Every structure is written in C-alpha cells, then in structure tokens.
C-alpha cells in the first residue's frame, strides 16, 4: 500500500502541480516575456 500510495501521490502531484502552478506562472510570465 505504501508503494501504491507513493505512486498515486506522485502521479497526482505531478499532474496537479505541473498543470495548475506552472499554468498560472506560464500565463503570467508569458505575456510579459512575449510582449
């Protein structure tokens, strides 16, 4: 169960973190950098 929870947490954090935080930072940093 530890391995499963670690894999589940890793996949969730990997999908949630790189999708939510990076998106906000990219959208906020993209206009300034691009324009």
Average pLDDT rating: 60
Which parts are unreliable, with pLDDT below 50 for 5 consecutive residues or more?
A: none
Query: In angstroms, what is the radius of gyration?
Result: 14 Å
**Count of the domains:** 1
* Global structural class: mainly alpha
Distinct helical segment count: 2
Task: Please write the string of helix (H) and strand (E) elements.
Answer: HH
Tell me the fraction of residues in β-strands, as a range.
Answer: under 5%
Helix content: over 70%
Main sheet overview: none
How many β-strand runs? 0
Explain how this protein is built:
- The protein has 35 residues and is mainly α.
- The chain has two helices and no strands.
- It has helices at 2-16, 21-34.
- The mean pLDDT is 60.
Helices, strands, pairings?
Elements (H helix, E strand, L loop, with lengths): L1 H15 L4 H14 L1
Q: Which key terms come to mind for this protein?
A:
mainly alpha; 2 helices; elongated; 35 residues; single chain
Please provide a brief summary of the model.
The chain is an all-alpha fold and 35 residues long. It has helices at 2-16, 21-34. The model has no long low-confidence stretch (mean pLDDT 60).
């Amino acid at each position: 169960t530890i391995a499963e929870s670690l894999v589940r947490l890793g996949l969730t954090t990997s999908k949630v973190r790189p999708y939510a935080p990076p998106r906000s930072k990219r959208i906020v940093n993209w206009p300034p950098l691009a324009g």
